[in-house]
């Protein structure tokens, strides 16, 4: 899985050394020495001693790094945009940070707040008679255009190559402004775009009411990085149709360019920072849910993917329309507990985003990596690790999601149902057989499953009855029913409501309905339903072999070198058949039963064997009536008998050498008339 501390800049190393005076500054560029003479500044009245423009065509931003900084009292450096809309002042020893000290604390090696766009102007003003060292600009960076950044991070030269993303199938993210007027948009105001050390981008968000911000440890892990990060809020477009699709497009407000590290963990991949000023009165704050989310619960993720303007992942074509939690124990990026998994779309730069529950708008995970599914650190683990460092009002009470009432959906009472897999089952009030609702399987992806189960325990034998229905890819995506982990039946394709009935002995039994998908293709509604569950007295044991040939009142015996068995993988009718066992050369296996009072015998059979040597045979009263070998698909056979008692049997037999095909036979849909 990828982590996304997203490098989005080009580094240009220079050596500008400035020694201020009230009259002139010595400017060193490489080995050349220049003299810069004082002029009058029209706005401040102070003299402009020196000025330099840093420009790169179509750059997303320009950031300047000072390696040394020491000005005389009253002198200052201004870093600004060419139109003056963005400007930042640095005095005396350099950049002011809060750090651990009370009062004024400055650092002399620092990144200046970035300037949006392609030009930054560095200007020195001063008339101080007390000289300082001056300052040195040792490097500056510019933000790349999208294709060039993707190619650079991938280590290729083709600027058209793009691959830094965790977009699951279609990109369903939308610009934040598209949700204006909703709670989702209000909560997204707490989310900031972070420019770290002038050269990497992540996402962060306000936690609690005291001005704390959370991001990933792999984004900010040191106090130095915290002090050299621009914390930019409301970097988004004016309308839903405004495109902010380039790096550091749609500039917002840089609330702070430094912060105080409170606590960090590489194992849990989080960092908590306190900003020098508290912006929560302007942007609000988020709260945490100190319990794991529910599988299948809706979520959304406000974020700054690729350092672009703010976007929100609300929808997901993988999750059946909306982004949801698919797992609470997904494989973590590194270390830590099991992660929270989801198919909400993210990209490089989204690291540190809050994963927010749709129901109560509490944060349930801290996004940090993924290659579909994407994953986030579970909040309860972070809460435990923070301990007494947790900010005020950081834990939300919230209203937990309403648990589905499967008793009502299945028209029973007193049962305890559990649901899980890659998604949870839900109550469906649109599709049902009885009572206005049913239980419906959860939305899952390829090679996933979603199940609903309950345990029954009776002192006498019972019969389990229910109705089920499926709409899926025929022959591949199945709604299955298990008793005590043993598959009893499965349906696929388009199957309308049909009742099923199974006898169980006294004691405890686990009933499980599972919708299971193969590795490709979606068809129909891609789900299954169950309704009208009944547990009635007088259960009788049904012979599995009788169930396989769809004649459940018979009792079969099996003999020879192996036992015939119920098979759900290959069938002609009703999703099961009887299959001969695996035998070797010069062996045979028999399945037989006794019938009476009928005159016609019909059944379907199929074989895959060595042609002309290994046979599936049919006998009536010990007399061979027919045999097939080689590759023979489902074929119906019909025989006439007297009304008396008769023994009918099917035998799969092999000769002394060679195996071919599946090396077995099947029987299905027995009819006695």
Chart the SSEs and their pairings.
Blueprint: E1 6-7, E2 9-19, E3 24-29, E4 32-37, E5 39-40, E6 47-55, E7 61-70, E8 76-80, E9 87-91, E10 95-96, E11 106-107, E12 110-111, E13 115-116, E14 119-125, E15 134-143, H1 146-154, E16 165-166, E17 174-175, H2 183-188, E18 191-196, E19 200-207, E20 212-215, H3 223-227, E21 229-233, E22 253-256, E23 260-265, E24 270-274, H4 280-283, E25 299-303, E26 311-313, E27 315-316, E28 321-322, E29 325-330, E30 339-342, E31 346-347, E32 354-357, E33 363-370, E34 374-378, H5 379-386, H6 406-409, E35 417-421, E36 426-428, E37 438-440, E38 449-458, E39 462-471, E40 478-483, E41 486-492, E42 494-504, E43 507-516, E44 527-537, H7 544-548, E45 557-560, E46 565-567, E47 577-579, E48 588-595, E49 600-608, E50 615-620, E51 623-628, E52 631-640, E53 646-653, E54 664-672
Antiparallel strand pairs: 1-19, 2-3, 2-15, 3-4, 5-6, 6-14, 7-12, 7-13, 7-15, 8-9, 8-14, 10-11, 16-31, 17-26, 18-19, 18-21, 19-20, 20-24, 21-22, 23-24, 25-26, 25-32, 27-28, 29-30, 30-34, 32-33, 33-34, 35-38, 36-37, 37-44, 38-43, 39-42, 39-44, 40-41, 40-43, 45-48, 46-47, 47-54, 48-53, 49-52, ...
How would you sum up this structure in a few lines?
Helix content is 6%, strand content 45%. It has seven helices and 54 strands. The longest helix is centred in the first third of the chain and has 9 residues, at 146-154.
Provide an overview of this structure.
The protein is mostly beta strands and 673 residues long. The chain has four domains: 6-146, Jelly Rolls, CATH 2.60.120; 165-389, Beta Barrel (Thrombin, subunit H); 406-541, Jelly Rolls; 545-672, Galactose-binding domain-like (Jelly Rolls), CATH 2.60.120. 6% of the residues lie in helices and 45% in strands. Strands 1, 18, 19, 20, 21, 22, 23 and 24 form an eight-stranded antiparallel β-sheet that branches. A hairpin with a 7-residue loop joins strand 25 and strand 26 (311-313). The longest helix has 9 residues, at 146-154. It is elongated, with a radius of gyration of 36 Å. The two termini are 62 Å apart. The model is unreliable at 1-45 and 149-165 (pLDDT under 50).
């Amino acid at each position: 899985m990828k982590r996304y501390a997203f490098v989005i800049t080009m580094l240009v190393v220079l050596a500008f050394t400035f020694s201020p005076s009230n009259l002139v500054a010595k400017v060193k560029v490489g080995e050349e020495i220049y003299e810069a003479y004082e002029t009058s500044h029209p706005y401040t009245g102070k003299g402009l001693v020196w000025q330099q423009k840093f420009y790169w065509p179509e750059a997303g931003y320009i950031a300047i790094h000072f390696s040394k900084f020491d000005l005389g009292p009253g002198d200052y450096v201004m870093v600004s945009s060419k139109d003056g809309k963005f400007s930042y002042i640095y005095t005396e020893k350099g950049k002011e940070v809060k750090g651990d000290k009370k009062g004024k604390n400055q650092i002399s090696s620092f990144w200046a707040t970035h300037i949006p766009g392609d030009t930054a102007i560095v200007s020195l003003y001063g008339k101080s008679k007390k000289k300082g060292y001056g300052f040195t600009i040792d490097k500056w960076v510019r933000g790349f255009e999208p294709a060039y950044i993707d190619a650079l991070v991938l280590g290729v030269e083709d600027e058209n190559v793009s691959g830094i993303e965790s977009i699951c199938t279609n990109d369903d993210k939308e610009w934040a402004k598209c949700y204006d007027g909703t709670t989702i948009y209000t909560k997204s105001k707490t989310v900031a775009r972070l420019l770290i050390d002038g050269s990497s981008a992540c996402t962060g968000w306000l936690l609690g009411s005291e001005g704390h911000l959370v991001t990933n440890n792999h984004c900010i892990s040191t106090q130095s990085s915290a002090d050299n990060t621009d914390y930019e809020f409301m970097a988004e477009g004016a309308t839903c149709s405004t495109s902010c699709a380039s790096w550091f497009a749609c500039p917002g407000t840089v609330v702070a360019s430094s912060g105080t590290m409170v606590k960090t963990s590489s194992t849990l991949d989080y960092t908590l920072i306190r900003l020098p000023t508290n912006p929560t009165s302007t942007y609000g704050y988020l709260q945490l849910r100190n319990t794991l989310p529910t599988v299948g619960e809706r979520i959304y993720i406000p974020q700054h993917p690729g350092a672009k303007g703010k976007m929100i992942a609300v929808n997901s074509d993988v999750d059946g329309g909306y982004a949801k939690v698919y797992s609470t124990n997904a494989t973590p990026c590194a270390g830590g507990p099991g992660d929270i998994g989801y198919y909400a779309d993210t990209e490089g730069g989204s690291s540190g985003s809050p994963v927010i529950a749709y129901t109560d708008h509490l944060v349930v995970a801290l996004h940090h990596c993924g290659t579909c599914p994407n994953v986030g650190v579970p909040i309860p683990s972070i809460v435990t690790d923070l301990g007494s460092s947790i900010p005020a009002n950081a834990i939300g009470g919230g209203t937990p999601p309403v648990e589905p009432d499967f008793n009502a959906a299945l028209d029973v009472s007193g049962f305890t149902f559990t649901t899980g897999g890659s998604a949870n089952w839900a109550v469906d009030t649109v599709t049902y057989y009885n009572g206005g609702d049913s239980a419906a399987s959860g939305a899952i992806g390829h090679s996933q499953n979603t199940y609903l189960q309950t345990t029954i325990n009776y002192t006498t034998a019972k019969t389990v009855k229910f109705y089920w229905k499926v709409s899926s890819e025929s022959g591949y995506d199945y709604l299955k029913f298990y008793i005590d982990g043993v598959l009893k039946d499965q349906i696929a394709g388009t199957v309308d409501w049909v009742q099923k009935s199974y006898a169980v002995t006294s004691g405890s039994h686990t009933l499980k309905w599972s919708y299971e998908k193969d590795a490709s293709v979606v068809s129909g509604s891609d789900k299954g339903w169950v309704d009208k569950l009944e547990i009635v007295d007088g259960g009788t044991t049904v012979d599995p072999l009788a169930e396989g040939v769809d004649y459940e009142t018979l009792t079969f015996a099996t003999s020879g070198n192996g036992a015939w068995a119920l098979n759900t993988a290959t069938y002609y009718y009703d999703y099961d058949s009887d299959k001969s066992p695996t035998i070797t050369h010069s062996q045979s296996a028999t399945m037989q039963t006794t019938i009476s009072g009928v005159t016609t015998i019909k059944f379907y059979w199929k074989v895959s064997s060595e042609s002309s040597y290994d046979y599936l045979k049919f006998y009536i009263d010990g007399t061979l009536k027919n045999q097939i070998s080689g590759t023979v698909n489902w074929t119906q056979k019909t025989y006439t008998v007297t009304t008396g008692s008769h023994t009918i049997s099917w035998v799969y037999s092999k000769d002394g050498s060679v195996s071919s095909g599946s090396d077995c036979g099947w029987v299905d849909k027995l009819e006695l008339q």
